[in-house]
């Protein structure tokens, strides 16, 4: 299995529920084709570098996954026929340095997700110090 990164941009006109449904659909397509997803990064809506299909903004999502090489053709075919996806990019990580970067990126995303999901720890206030009484001597 090889390491990949898939970045795709959804139309900005989609509602939050529709965008989530499309991301889930892409995740299902990846899993059906034998991919194991390492991490998903939702970057939200951002300004595009240039106009794409008359859109100036897009909703960015990145998947880091491992998949057999034959699965990439099917995944890209399905993305191309999907009208809600206006741009996509698949990157293959081949050598040891690139794979190490892939693993570091996945660990960072997972660590950030775990940190966000943990409830904040309560901070106990320190013992209140009473102001010293000042005695006035006349």
Describe the structure.
- The protein has helices at 16-32, 69-81, 96-117; strands at residues 2-10, 36-52, 55-67, 85-93.
- It has 138 residues and is of the alpha+beta class.
- The chain has a single domain (2-117), classed as Alpha-Beta Plaits (2-Layer Sandwich), CATH 3.30.70.60.
- Strands 2-3-1-4 form a four-stranded antiparallel beta sheet, sandwiched between helices.
- The N and C termini lie far apart (88 Å).
Topology, number of strands: 4
Strand order of the largest sheet: 2-3-1-4
Mean pLDDT: 86
Number of domains: 1
CATH architecture call = 2-Layer Sandwich
* SS strand fraction: 25-35%
| Main sheet attributes: strand count, strand direction, barrel closure | 4 strands, antiparallel
Radius of gyration: 23 Å
CATH topology: Alpha-Beta Plaits
What is the string of SSEs from the N terminus onward?
A: EHEEHEH
- Specify the CATH class: Alpha Beta
* Stretches with pLDDT under 50, minimum 5 residues: 121-135
Straight-line N-to-C gap: 88 Å
CATH superfamily: Ribosomal protein S6/Translation elongation factor EF1B
Please state the overall shape, judged from the principal axes of the Cα atoms.
globular
The level of helicity is: 25-40%
Distinct helical segment count: 3
SSE-based structural type: alpha+beta
């Amino acid at each position: 299995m090889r390491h990949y990164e898939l970045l795709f941009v959804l139309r900005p006109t989609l509602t939050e529920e529709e965008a989530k449904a499309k991301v889930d659909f892409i995740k299902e397509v990846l899993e059906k084709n034998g991919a194991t997803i390492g991490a998903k990064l939702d970057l939200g809506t951002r300004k595009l570098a240039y106009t794409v299909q008359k859109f100036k903004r897009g909703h960015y999502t990145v998947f880091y996954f491992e998949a057999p090489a034959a699965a990439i053709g099917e995944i890209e075919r399905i993305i191309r026929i999907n009208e809600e996806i206006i741009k996509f990019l698949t990157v293959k990580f081949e050598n040891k340095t690139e794979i190490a970067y892939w693993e570091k990126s996945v660990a960072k995303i997972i660590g950030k997700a775990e940190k966000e999901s943990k409830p904040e720890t309560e901070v106990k206030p320190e013992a209140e110090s009473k102001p010293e009484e000042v005695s006035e001597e006349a």
